[in-house]
Amino acid sequence: MIERRDVFQAIADPTRRMIIQKLLRGPLNIGQIVEDSGITRQGIAKHLKVLNECGMVILTQKGREQFCEARLDKLDEVVDWVQASRKMWNQRFEKLDKFLANTKK
Amino acid sequence: MIERRDVFQAIADPTRRMIIQKLLRGPLNIGQIVEDSGITRQGIAKHLKVLNECGMVILTQKGREQFCEARLDKLDEVVDWVQASRKMWNQRFEKLDKFLANTKK
DNA sequence: TATAAATACAACCATTTGGTTGTGCAAGTT
DNA sequence: AACTTGCACAACCAAATGGTTGTATTTATA
Questions:
Q1: Which residue of A has its CA nearest to B25?
Q2: What is the DSSP code string of A68-85?
Q3: Beta bridge partners of A68
Q4: Do A85 and B75 touch (CB under 8 A)?
């Protein structure tokens, strides 16, 4: 099992997706993310660490508070993978079509 | 920790993404997936079980062989989530623009 | 019929994950 | 100065994950 801390893994956890959702309207500090989350501050902090390590959340200290801001750029990686997969998948049918077209001749 | 077996979790594992990739060109039986994977048949079988449970791979018995076929439809869920997130994220800037436009008056 | 091939099922194992509590420390507030 | 707020760090824990080996079963094939 290799060390893997990528976007795919980051968004795999529902709690982390919830955090991302909360951050979409603007930066929050940890306390605000914790509110109504049903998870302890430390739990949230751990998730933020993961999200930060894979570049999905940037953290900036502001006095004693730490502001968390979402970064969606990395999601490109996920969409790209899906699109590439779909492309290859569709080529499969195109080849089949060509084959059928040839056999008809 | 709730039982979660969704597409997000399914594609989080690199080995499972590798399996999907292999299946894009057409259905394969387990043995063919195992080839050059560096993982035992049982390991692959476990991953296939996960992929099957979340609807990303369909398994059909054919004699003594079991054919595995990719199903990309479920990836919509992932793309949809990303698109929705991006949309909300962009609205944040639109609101800021409107605010700035108003203050200029 | 004996044997090989393809798989299923179960037990096991180390590591990771997702969470907790508890302690301590820095930064504002009263 | 005393107190509160916000957070970091560490230890701990149960469950899940990602893999293994070992055994049994079914299906082709020589």
A1: A92
A2: EEE--TTHHHHHHHHHHH
A3: A28, A59
A4: yes
pLDDT, chain A, mean = 91
DSSP reduced 3-state for A58: strand
The model's pTM: 0.88
The rounded distance, in Å, linking the Cα atoms of A24 and A62 is: 20
Domain A1-73 fold is Arc Repressor Mutant, subunit A (1.10.10)
Which residue on chain A is closest to B76 by alpha carbon?
Answer: A82
Chain B CB contacts of A70 under 8 Å are: 89
Residue B67 pairs in a beta bridge with B29, B60
Judge whether A55 and A49 are in contact, CB under 8 Å.
no
Query: pLDDT by residue (tens digit) across A6-22?
Result: 999 999 999 999 999 99
Which strand (E) or helix (H) includes residue B58? Answer: strand B57-62
Q: What angle do CA A44, A48, A52 make, to 5 degrees?
A: 175
Indicate the residue type of B15. Answer: T
φ, ψ of residue A5 to 5 degrees: the values are -135, 75
Determine the CATH number of domain B1-72: 1.10.10.10
Structure tokens at A62: 């502001």
- pLDDT tens-place string over residues B26-41: 999 999 999 999 999 9
